[in-house]
Design a protein that fits this description.
Number of strands of chain A: 0
Largest sheet of chain A: none
Protein name (chain A): Iron ABC transporter permease
CATH superfamily of the largest domain in chain B: P-loop containing nucleotide triphosphate hydrolases
Order of helices and strands of chain A: HHHHHHHHHHHHHH
Helix content of chain A: over 70%
Number of domains of chain B: 2
Shape of chain A: globular
Order of helices and strands of chain B: EEEHEEHEHHHHEHEHEEHHEE
Number of helices of chain A: 14
Helix content of chain B: 25-40%
Largest interface: A-B, 19 and 33 residues
Strand order of the largest sheet of chain B: 6-7-8-3-9-10
CATH architecture of the largest domain in chain B: 3-Layer(aba) Sandwich
CATH topology of chain A: ABC transporter involved in vitamin B12 uptake, BtuC
Pfam family, one (chain A): FecCD
Subcellular location (chain A): Cell membrane
Membrane topology (chain A): Multi-pass membrane protein
GO molecular function (chain A): transmembrane transporter activity
Structural class of chain B: alpha/beta
Strand content of chain B: 25-35%
Oligomer: heterodimer
Chain lengths: 316, 251
């Protein structure tokens, strides 16, 4: 039953990928179009898998189905970096922003932020994940306010540069970075996937998990760091798009009705791929690039959540 | 054997366990009794490594509990706490299967499936094994959780108020089952229990706690005495011998 549902998702994802690859194909420019489209598809799959996997695991270790890793404040750190670079170096930054070094610097800063939080709160012997998240949230808000302040006082033309990076985009992904990101994301996802049976047990609660021999605190700490790296890489690659995770992780749980992370992780990744491919198709073919994909995903996600709310309230 | 030496635990500045030392014998039921807030559950949580003590050491068969691998411990000692809320949709069988995790790491063998079925049969939930937990009554849920602990098949079983939510019939069945586990399989069982007559009839030893300390400890006959109980509960309790059982009347 579960396997059949997974196969269904694979089929949908593959057909969307095929559609995306071949729609409006101009056979004279076939080679070029194929290459750019395949790159975009790869970028979407990488982003989708890292967001899907990290959100499911994050929700399991926090025992909360409405949280996403964005609560760690990584998105805000990313925006802050973008803003401060534009603020300091002006419109010449477009070149900087495209460079590989800049990509790694952003990842390094975001991961550094997460490690800092981790050191500050976990190393003192305590392991209060929620305190850590709260501090992340507060610092995230702090960075957002600083960013908005700087955005207010810079040249409007330069602001456009920042605005570009506010929304995830798959249209101008750097090919070199794509391969490196792919390696990082695949390695981390395999690492996470090896813990899938532990997550099953952890989802029935800390005390039961400890009783059953799960090194609970150790796994929570490790996963916190792994999730931070995953989110940092995917954000640096395409931009902030964590709402997607909230949508697809919940869709996966609703659709499969299971606690088994073997299936949940795969389904959330596949649903994210479907959402991104579908969203990108709509953006490119219906709106002809006039709206960013995150607007569409947020719209669909919002509608879905209202539906969930209405349905749940009817039950009571 | 479980040996605790000078255990202490603070919640904030409040000392909930003060210098408690205790030895629990193998192959017996030891009941922990005492008023609310005496520290019984906290003590059990520390013994089973769910909670780290601020002071003192717990030895399980001669080895420090906090220095052992969690996975190995899970095959030796199992604990069930009082409040068990699971938000997920789980069937009874799926829940009980978690009890085999220390052995199978998620991939159940035929032997595991066998043990799971046995555990479900012990608590009489065979007919409901495919029902979801949220469809069960409080007592049925409690029995499902106890089955999970039984499936873990450990030498030591710690149960924090196992009779919660159970009706009289199932409470008696549960205590008889625990007795059987001790007599037939040599298990060591530690209980936190509020019904003093259940403690009196079914346990080998009783440990009485009050204000984070042990105030009385010994074989059941020695503890179920009017004067001892008076010092624990501040309540006049008559003890009667009824068909070889010591029954307390305190109504």
């Amino acid at each position: 039953m579960l396997k059949r549902k997974i196969i269904l998702l694979v089929v949908i994802a593959l057909s969307l990928a095929g559609l995306y690859l071949f729609i409006h194909m101009n056979f004279q420019a076939m080679e070029y179009l194929m290459r750019t489209r395949l790159e975009k598809i790869l970028a979407m799959i990488l982003c989708a898998v890292s967001i899907g996997v990290s959100t499911v695991v994050f929700q399991t270790i926090t025992h909360n189905r409405i949280l996403t890793p964005s609560i760690m404040g990584l998105d805000s750190v990313y925006m802050f970096i973008q803003t401060i670079v534009v603020f300091l170096f002006g419109s010449g930054t477009f070149v900087i922003m495209q460079s590989d070094a800049y990509f790694f610097l952003t990842i390094l800063l975001m991961v550094g932020f997460a490690f800092g939080l981790y050191q500050l709160l976990f190393r003192r012997g305590q392991s209060n994940l929620f305190l850590l998240l709260l501090v992340g949230l507060v610092l995230g808000t702090f960075f957002s306010s600083l960013s908005s302040f700087m955005q207010m006082i810079i040249d409007p033309n330069e602001f456009l540069l920042i605005q570009d990076s506010m929304f995830a985009s798959f249209t101008d992904v750097n090919t070199n970075l794509l391969l490196i990101s792919a390696v990082i994301i695949i390695v981390l996802c395999i690492y996470i996937f090896r813990y899938r049976h532990y997550f099953d047990v952890m989802s029935i609660g800390r005390d039961h998990a400890v009783n059953l021999g799960v090194p609970y605190e150790k796994i929570v700490k490790r996963m916190f760091l792994v999730i931070a790296v995953l989110v940092a890489v995917s954000t640096a690659l395409v931009g902030p798009i964590t709402f997607l995770g909230l949508l697809t992780a919940n869709l996966a749980r609703e659709f499969l009705q299971t606690f088994r992370h073997t299936y949940l992780l795969i389904a959330a990744s596949l649903l994210s791929v479907i959402a991104l491919l579908g969203g990108q198709l709509v953006v490119e073919r219906i709106f002809s690039f006039s709206t960013p994909i995150s607007v569409i995903i947020n719209f669909v996600g919002g509608v879905y959540f209202i539906y969930l709310l209405v349905r749940e309230s009817k039950k009571i | 054997m479980i040996v605790a030496e000078k255990l202490s635990k603070y919640f904030g500045s409040k000392k909930v366990i003060q210098d408690v030392s205790i030895e629990v014998k193998r192959g017996a039921i030891t009941s922990f009794i005492g008023p609310n807030g005496a520290g019984k559950s906290t003590l059990l949580s520390m013994v089973s490594r769910l909670l780290k003590q601020d002071d003192g050491i717990v030895y399980l068969d001669g080895k420090d509990v906090h220095k052992q691998k969690s996975k190995d411990l899970a095959k030796t000692i199992a604990i069930l706490r009082q409040s068990n809320v699971v938000q997920m949709r789980l069937t009874v069988r799926e829940l009980v299967s978690f009890g085999r995790f220390p052995y199978s790491s998620g991939r159940l063998t035929d032997e595991d499936e066998q043990k799971v079925s046995e555990a479900i049969a012990y608590v009489n939930l065979e007919e409901m094994e495919d029902n979801y937990l949220n469809e069960l009554s409080g007592g049925q849920k409690q029995r499902a959780f106890i089955a999970m602990v039984l499936a873990q098949d450990t030498d030591y079983i710690l149960l924090d108020e196992p009779l919660n939510n159970l009706d009289m019939k199932h409470a008696v069945q549960m205590m008889k089952l625990l007795r059987k586990l001790v007599e037939d399989f040599g298990k060591t069982i530690l209980l936190v229990i509020h019904d003093i007559n259940f403690a009196s009839v079914y346990s080998d030893r009783i440990v009485a706690m009050k204000d984070g300390k042990i105030v009385a400890e010994g074989p059941t006959e020695d503890i179920i005495q009017s004067d001892v109980l008076k010092s624990i509960y501040d309540l006049d309790i008559d003890v009667h011998n009824i068909s070889c059982n010591r029954i307390c009347v305190y109504f």
